[in-house]
Amino acid sequence: MEPVIELNKISKSFGAFKAVDELSLEVYKGNVFGFLGPNGAGKSTTMRMILSLIKPSSGSIKIFGKELTSHRNEIMRQIGCIIEKPDFYLYMSAEKNLQLFSKLSGVDVSKNKIQEIIELVGLKGREKDKVKTYSHGMKQRLGIAQTLIHNPELIILDEPTTGLDPQGIIDIREMILRLKNDMGKTIILSSHILSEIELVANRMVIINKGKQVAQGEVTELLSTQDLILSIEVEDGKIAIEKLNGYKKEKFSSLENNTLKFSLSKNEIPGLVNELNKTGIKIYGITYRRALEEYFLKLTHQYN
Amino acid sequence: MIYRLLKVELYKIFSRPRSYIGFVAIAILVFIFQLALFVDGKTYLIFLIQQLETNFSISGNILNGYLITYVILQTLIVQMPLMVALVTGDLLSGEASAGTMRLLATKPISRANIITAKFIAGSFYTLLLVLWLGGLALGFGLWIFKTGDLMVLSTDHISIIPAAECLWRFFAACVVAFISLSVVTTFSLMLSAFSDNSIVPIVSTMAVIIIFTIIGTLDMPLFNNIKPLLFTTHMIVWQKLFQDPLSISTILKSIAIMLAYIVGFLSVTYYRFIKKDILS
Amino acid sequence: MIRNFILFFLFTLCFSNYSVAQTSSQIINKVNTNFSKVNDYTADMSIHLDVSFIKMNDIAAKVFFKKPKKFKVKAEGIMLLPKQNPNNIQAMLSDTNTYSAIKTGTEIINGVNTTIITVIPNTDTADLILGKFWIDANKGLILKSHLTTRSNGNLEIEHFYGANFSYALPDKLIFTIETSKFKLPKALVVDLDSASTEDTGKPENKKGKITIVFSNYLVNKGVDDKVFK
C-alpha cells in the first residue's frame, strides 16, 4: 500500500537544541495514526514540518507520494488541520471564519455545506456568534469543522482533546472514528495520553526527545503478552522469601511492599496461587502493559 | 488565488474595529478644525497675514475651502503614520499573536502571496485613509468656506495658488502622501514579519518615525549628510506641490527615494516571511 | 486705510493757513486739472508682484472710480495691492490747503524734463512725512512719486502714460516698496526643509516691486454706484 505520508530521517534543530532527530515514519491511507509522546517530545514540531510551517533541518517529507517542498500548494489543498489549539478570527462569527478558511483552501463552500458541518460538530445555533464569545470546547469543535470544511483527504489533529470536558473528549473520539470508518479519511492524531490514541488509532509512533521510541500496529505494541504486574502484600520481603524462587526470572522490583513482575497475562493465575499458598495477605493486584508502563514513566518524568 | 486572498485580507481589515479608529479620528479632527476655523478663522488669519498688511491691502476670500484643506492636511498628515501603523503593523504579527497564522500558512497559498495580499490590502487601507482625509477636508471645506485662491504660508514666504489649480494639486498631493504613507505601511509590515505581537511593530514604527523626524529637524552638520537618506525627510514632499514654481525634479527625486524604500522594505519582508519557521 | 488717508488730509486742511508757492502751485494745479476731467473710469488691471517672499501669478483685476472718491478694485481671487494707490495721490494733491509744496529742483526722467515738487503736510501727526513728485510741468503729469510715510516707510512710484495721458490716467505704475523680512513662527506652519528659502541670511529690509498695467480704460462713461458696495 502506498503511504500517504512518508517522513525520511527528518531532523529539526533550533540553535543547539535538537527538537526532532532523524525521525522516519509512514502513514497509510484510511488509517488513524497516533503520535504519542510526552510534552516537548517533538510531536508538534514534526506536525508543523508535515504542514510546512517549519522547514526541516534535514531529511525529506513526501505526502500523497509527492515531495512537500516542490508540491506544497497541491498537497495542502488535501490537508485539514488543527495545530496546538484552534485559533480563529475572534472578531468574526464562526460561520464567517469557516467561509474565509474554505475560501483560502481554494474551494467555494455553499452555505448549506457550512451549516451541515456546523451541525456535525454540534455548534448549531451559535454559528452567528462571534468566536470571542466561545468557550475552549466550542473553539475546539469549530477547529474540527474548519479541518473538514474543504473535504480534505488527510486530517492532522494536534492534541484535539486538550482542555475538553469528558463528554467533549468522547465526542471528538467518535468523530475521528466516523471520519475514518464512514468517510475513509486518513488521520494523524497526536496526544500525550496513551489511552486516547489506543482507542482510535490503528498505528502509532512514540517519540521522546525528538527520537522514535517505538512504531507499529497499536494492537501489537500494546499486546497483553508483555505485562507489568504489581502485587501489594503485607510484607514484601517475607513474600519473596516464601515464594522460594518462583518466577524469579520474571521478578523486577520491590517497592513499598509492592512486588513487580514482568510476565504475560496467562502467567498471572499461577503466581497469585503461589502467593496465596504462602499465607501472606494480598491487598491488591494491578497490571499494566509494558509500553503503557514505560510511557507513564516518561510522562511522569516530564510532568 | 491572490484575488481570493486579497478579498479575505480586506474583509479582515474592515471587520476589525481598530481599522476604523483612523477614520473616526480623522473625521473628528477635520470637524474640529473646520469648526474652529469657522468660528475663529478670521482671528487666525489676521494673525497670520498681519505682516503682509504693513505693505499691502489684501482682498479676496483668503479663508476658503482650499486653505482650510491645506491647513488640515499640513497638520494631520504628520499624525497619519500612527493611524496607518496601527493597522499595517498588525497585519502579520497580529495573525501570529492570535494564532491564526498557523491556519493561514497551512492553506494552499504561497507565503509570498500572503505578503503580496497583505501589502495590497494595507496599501488600499492607507489609500482610503488619505482619500478620506483629503475628501472630508476638501468637501466640507469647499461647502462651508467656498472656493478661492490658496494662500500657502511658510515660515519665510507666501505662495498664492490660483483656485483653478488647487484641485489637481490636492489630488496630486494625496497621491504623493499615499506614496509617503506606503513607506510607513511597508516599514511596519516588515517589522510585523519579525514579531509575534502587534505592539512591537506599531510602537517601533512610531519610534523610528519620531527619531528620524527629530534628526531631520536638528540643524547639525553631522545630521545634514544623512537627512537626504531618511525617508521621513521625503514624506512631506507633498507640500512642494503647493509651491511655485513647481519643483518637479525635487518631487520626483523624493518619490523615487520613497519607492526605493518601499521596494527595500518589501524585499526584506518577503525574505524574512518566506524563510520564517512559524512557531506561534 | 485709503479713506483714512483722505480724511486725514481733510482734517489737516481745517487747521492750515500756510500758503502754497506760486510756481509749484501752478504745476500742481495743472496736474489737478488733468485729473478733474475724469468723472469716472473703469479699466482692466494686471498686477505683477516681484516681492521676494511672495510667490504669486499675475493678478487680473478691474478697477472702478467715480468722483469724488469712490474707488474699487475687483478680482476673482486673492489680491494684494500696494497700500498707496494713484487716486490717493490725486486726492491728496487736490486738497491744496492741507500741505505745503516747494519746488526743489529739476530732473530728466525717461528723456522728459521734470520739476521736483516736495510736499510737506501741514500737521506733524499726518501719516505722510514727506512727498516728492517729479512732474512733467508741460503736460501736468506726475512721472515719479516718492512718499515717506510713518506706517509703510518709503514708497516710490513710477508713472507711465499712454493714450489716456490727458486725464492723467497711467498705463503702467511701478511701485517700489520697502519690505521687512517675512517670518512666521514654525509653530504656526509645518514647513518644508529650509532648502527652499534661498534668501535666508540677506538683510532684513529689502525692496519689492509691484507693477500694475492698466488697459481698456473707459473714461467718463458712467459707473454704477452698486459697483462700490
* Weakly predicted, low-confidence segments of chain C: 1-22, 193-203
Estimate the strand proportion of chain B.
under 5%
- Order of SSEs of chain C, N→C? HHEEEEEHEEEEEEE
Strand arrangement across the biggest beta sheet of chain C: 4-3-1-12-11-10-9-8-7-6
Task: Give me a quick take on this structure.
The complex is a heterotrimer of chains A (303), B (280) and C (229). Chain B is mainly alpha-helical. In chain B, 70% of the residues lie in helices and 4% in strands.
Structure, described:
The complex is a heterotrimer of chains A (303), B (280) and C (229). Chain A is of the alpha/beta class and 303 residues long. In chain A, 35% of the residues lie in helices and 30% in strands. Chain A contains eleven helices and 14 strands. A six-stranded mixed beta sheet of chain A has the order 6-7-8-3-9-10, sandwiched between helices. Chain A starts with a strand and ends with a helix. Chain B is mostly helical and 280 residues long. Chain B has one domain (2-275). Chain B is 70% helix and 4% strand. Chain B has twelve helices and three strands. Chain B has helices at 2-14, 19-49, 65-76, 80-88, 93-98, 100-104, 111-145, 163-193, 199-217, 221-224, 231-234, 248-275; strands spanning 56-59, 150-153, 158-161. A two-stranded antiparallel sheet of chain B has the order 2-3. The longest helix of chain B is centred in the middle third of the chain and has 35 residues, at 111-145. Chain B starts with a helix and ends in a 5-residue tail after the last helix. The model of chain C is unreliable at 1-22 and 193-203 (pLDDT under 50). Chain B binds chain C through residues 47-48, 51-52, 54-62, 74-75, 78, 148-149, 151, 153-160, 162-163, 216, 219, 227, 233, 236-237, 239-240, 243-245, and chain C through 1-2, 51-57, 73, 75-83, 151-152, 177-186, 188-194, 196-197, 199-200, 208. Strand 3 of chain B pairs parallel with strand 2 (54-56) of chain C.
Question: How would the blueprint of this fold be written?
Answer:
The complex is a heterotrimer of chains A (303), B (280) and C (229).
Chain A: E1 3-14, E2 17-28, E3 32-36, H1 43-50, E4 58-63, E5 66-67, H2 72-76, E6 79-82, H3 94-104, H4 111-120, H5 136-148, E7 154-158, H6 166-181, E8 186-191, H7 194-200, E9 203-208, E10 211-217, H8 218-221, E11 227-233, H9 236-243, E12 251-255, E13 258-263, H10 268-278, E14 282-289, H11 290-302
Parallel strand pairs in A: 3-8, 3-9, 6-7, 7-8
Antiparallel strand pairs in A: 1-2, 1-4, 4-5, 9-10, 11-13, 11-14, 12-13
Chain B: H1 2-14, H2 19-49, E1 56-59, H3 65-76, H4 80-88, H5 93-98, H6 100-104, H7 111-145, E2 150-153, E3 158-161, H8 163-193, H9 199-217, H10 221-224, H11 231-234, H12 248-275
Antiparallel strand pairs in B: 2-3
Helix pairs in contact in B: 1-7, 2-7, 3-7, 4-7, 4-8, 4-9, 7-8, 7-12, 8-9, 8-12
Chain C: H1 2-14, H2 22-36, E1 40-50, E2 54-56, E3 59-66, E4 70-75, E5 79-82, H3 86-94, E6 99-109, E7 112-121, E8 128-136, E9 141-149, E10 153-161, E11 170-180, E12 205-219
Antiparallel strand pairs in C: 1-3, 1-12, 3-4, 6-7, 7-8, 8-9, 9-10, 10-11, 11-12
